[in-house]
Amino acid sequence: MYVVYVVLTVVTALAAGAGAWMNLTHHPVPVAAAQQVQVPQSWMIPLGIAQGAGALGLLTGFVAPPIGLAAASGLVLYFLGAVIAHLRAGDRHYSAVLPALTLVTVTLAATVAYQLG
Questions:
Q1: How far is CA 82 from CA 9, 23, 79, in A?
Q2: pLDDT at res. 22
Q3: Burial code of 31-59, b = ≥16 C-beta within 10 A, e = fewer?
Q4: 61 and 9 in contact (C-beta within 8 Å)?
Q5: pLDDT tens track for 58-96
Q6: For residues 65-77, b (16+ Cβ closer than 10 Å) or e, as one string?
């Protein structure tokens, strides 16, 4: 179980870190997605910071398990919020959101299973 936990945590941290970088640098992909779901451009920096904090928190979880659990939970909530934003805007293009939500949910499950087992 430890190997699954480590691999999922590292992959998720890398993905969240990449997402944070894309938001913080106003990369065209998240900018277009934000416009499509009517999220103000002024939210890009706070959203990037939230993703970056999640990525760092996941990695910190290797030495402070409660922080890793909190980070995984926060990332699940972050991507649930993204799904809600798509639903609110009537946008059915979940090509990036659903895989990300799946990844962070599986990572949360592996984190819980490892920490309880």
A1: 21, 13, 5
A2: 97
A3: bebbeebebeeeebeebbebbbbbbbbbb
A4: yes
A5: 999 999 999 999 999 999 999 999 999 989 988 887 777
A6: eebbbbbbbbbbe
